[in-house]
User: Fold this.
Amino acid sequence: MDKRQEYIIVTANIAEAEEIIKDGSDEEMTEMARLQLEEAKERLPQLEEEIKFLLIPKDPEDSKNAVMEIRAGTGGDEASIFAGDLYRMYNKYCQDKGWSVSVMDMNEGTSGGFKEIILEINGEDVYGTLKFEAGVHRVQRVPQTETQGRVHTSAATVMVLPKRKSLMWNSIWRMSRSFVLLPQGLVVSRLIQLTRLFSYSTFPQA
Assistant:
């Protein structure tokens, strides 16, 4: 059932239930109508949000393959371990989606994980699915490197860009990687700026 049909059915159920409750001649039917009304009114706001999301125009970049960089942030060796955990999580997710993942570059951490790892991900609607993962990811836990049981906060930066066949790709990628030298509060805004530059450029399309 598509969202349009479901919306019609839900609104019809609300109108029908309200009419039965207003009549009130059959106690059993009235009780069933109250349950139907409660269920329909609970579903309606969720359905409206889902329909609004479907009405958003699709980004033409969404169907492209993607390049993802995972880079350890604050937290020392534990941040590298966390970056490794993120890599395994995304790699497993991509496998489940039927996408192919290849490592373009990596720098391993001294106690495991990665200081940075760059992935090329190919498949259907890869960029449209993964683009919302871009930004700073944080974790609070007792790290493997902790000997006294203290909780540490570690961070890693994830960057996702649509893959293009362009002579300018390597230059733009090197420029984007320099963002990790900025304070964490500026990383996401700079990512947005770069993505806009990249999306509206006149580079040859993949």
User: Anything to note?
Assistant: Helices lie at 3-23, 27-55, 77-97, 126-130, 169-177, 184-199.
